[in-house]
Amino acid sequence: MSTTPKTLIAGNWKMYKTEAEAVELASGLAASLHGNLSADREVLLLPPFTALKAVAETILGRDKMLLGGQNFYPSSEGAFTGEIAPFMLADAGCTHALAGHSERRHVLKESDRFIAQKTAFGLQFGLHMILCIGETLDQRTHGSVENVLKGQLRLGLAEVNKDEVTPEHLSIAYEPVWAIGTGKVAQNEDIIAAHDFIRKTLVDFFPHCGSNLRILYGGSVKADNAGTILRLDNVNGVLVGGASLQVESFAAIATAA
Ligand code: PEP
C-alpha cells in the first residue's frame, strides 16, 4: 500500500532570472531553509532552462531540495527546434517536471492531447510529473468547475500506464486560472471542495494509490496565506509563482506552520 509523500513546496520561476540571479536566489533559499524545514516537507525549484545546471550545483545534495523543469517536449530526441528533451532535464539534475500549466494551456495553446503525451512520456522516462489543472473564471461562473477538473484529469492522464502511477511519480496541482498571478487567492471552502473532488476522481482512476497522490494548490500563494492553505484537507503542498522569486517570501511559505 502506498503512502503520501512529503508536503511539496514548489517554486515556479517562469521566465524570470538570469543565471547569476537564479544562483543568488537558490543559495539564499538553501541557507534560509537549512535546519528550518520540517521533516515532512520538501522544496522543489523550477528555474528557467538556462539556469538549471547552475541551480543544480547550488542546491542538489542539500537535504530536501529538488530541481525540476517547467516544460519539455515528449520525445527522446530529434529535430524539434527550440525544444528540450527529458534526458536533458535529467542531465541538468532535474527529477521533476510540470505539464499542463495554465500559461502553457492558455498562452501557448497546448492541447489536452499534447499535455497527455507529455505527462505519459515524462512518467515513462522516470520524471516525477506534476499535472496542473484548473478552471477559468468563466467556467467557474457557469458552474462547471467539476466538469472541467474531471475532463482535464481524464484527458491529461489518458495515456499513462496506470501501473506506473504512484505517489512517488505523480502529483496534481489545482490552479484556478483566475487566481494565478492575480493576487486573488481562492476561498478556503473553494479549495477544499476542489481538492475533495480531485481526490475522489483520483481514487476512482487509480484505486491502488489515488488516496495518496499529492494534490498541490496554486494561485497567489503568499507568505501570509500559505499556512492556512497548507492546513486544509487534501492540500499536500503548494505551487508558487510570484512569491517564489524572493528568498524571504518563498522561505516563509516553505516554513509556514
Ligand atoms: C504559478 O505559476 O503556478 C502560480 C501559481 O503563480 P502565482 O503564485 O504567481 O499565482
Structure description:
The protein is α/β, with parallel strands linked by helices and 257 residues long. The protein has one domain (7-238): TIM Barrel (Alpha-Beta Barrel), CATH 3.20.20.70. It is built from 10 helices and 8 strands. It has helices spanning 19-33, 52-59, 86-91, 102-107, 112-125, 137-141, 145-156, 188-205, 223-230, 247-254, and strands spanning 7-12, 41-46, 65-69, 96-99, 128-133, 170-174, 214-218, 237-240. It has an 8-stranded parallel barrel with strand order 1-2-3-4-5-6-7-8, surrounded by 6 helices. Residues 12, 175, 180-181, 218-221, 239-243 line the site of phosphoenolpyruvate.
Short description:
The chain has 10 helices and 8 strands.
Q: What is this structure's SSE topology?
A:
Elements: E1 7-12, H1 19-33, E2 41-46, H2 52-59, E3 65-69, H3 86-91, E4 96-99, H4 102-107, H5 112-125, E5 128-133, H6 137-141, H7 145-156, E6 170-174, H8 188-205, E7 214-218, H9 223-230, E8 237-240, H10 247-254
Parallel strand pairs: 1-2, 1-8, 2-3, 3-4, 4-5, 5-6, 6-7, 7-8
Phosphoenolpyruvate is lined by residues 12, 175, 180-181, 218-221, 239-243.
Largest sheet: 8 strands, parallel, barrel
What is the CATH third-level topology name?
A: TIM Barrel
Strand adjacency order, main sheet:
1-2-3-4-5-6-7-8
Q: Please name the fourth-level CATH homologous superfamily.
A: Aldolase class I
Q: Indicate the percent of residues in helices.
A: 25-40%
Shape: globular
> Roughly how many Å is the radius of gyration?
17 Å
CATH class categorisation = Alpha Beta
Oligomeric assembly: single chain
Structural domain count: 1
In N-to-C order, the SSE pattern is EHEHEHEHHEHHEHEHEH
In angstroms, what separates the terminal alpha carbons? 29 Å
Structural class: alpha/beta
Unreliable sequence segments: none
Mean pLDDT metric: 96
